[in-house]
Write a structure and sequence with these properties.
This is C-type lectin domain-containing protein. The protein has 127 residues and is an alpha+beta fold. It is built from two helices and six strands, in the order E-E-H-H-E-E-E-E.
């Protein structure tokens, strides 16, 4: 165990052991995934209600230059006879535990996961 405090690069916001940064360049989900990887990051994996609230606060802070939807690291994946949502690191997301909007996840219509209600504007958030 260590008491060493993790610091985040300039322009990133810290919560616990994670650093988050929103990028304001519109990308497809695969493009956003690659862009984050170039910076040694990945699309955000939201694991707790606290992280969910924190990411929402980043996206709604005053002075934010963009009001577009934002990609997180979650996408649908065909698995045998079923479709599931999986984090970009391969860990399955629970359809029973999470922060889903009412009537979500929808395994039949669409394959995107955003911090929003539609798949129109697409800006990545890395962690």
């Amino acid at each position: 165990l260590s008491d060493i405090e993790q610091t985040c690069p300039e322009g990133w916001s810290r919560l616990g052991q994670k650093c988050f940064k929103e990028y304001h360049v519109e990308k497809s989900w695969p493009q956003a995934l690659r862009m984050c990887a170039r910076y040694g990051a990945h699309l955000a994996r939201i694991e707790t209600p606290r992280e969910n609230k924190f990411v929402a606060s980043l996206l709604s802070r005053p002075g934010r230059s963009s009001q577009h939807e934002t990609w997180i690291g979650l996408a649908s994946q065909q698995q045998a006879d079923d479709v599931a949502f999986v984090w970009s690191d391969g860990v399955p997301a629970s359809r029973y535990v999470g922060f889903w909007k009412e009537s979500q996840p929808n395994y039949k219509d669409g394959s995107c996961a955003l911090v929003s209600s539609s798949c129109e504007g697409r800006h990545p958030i890395a962690s």
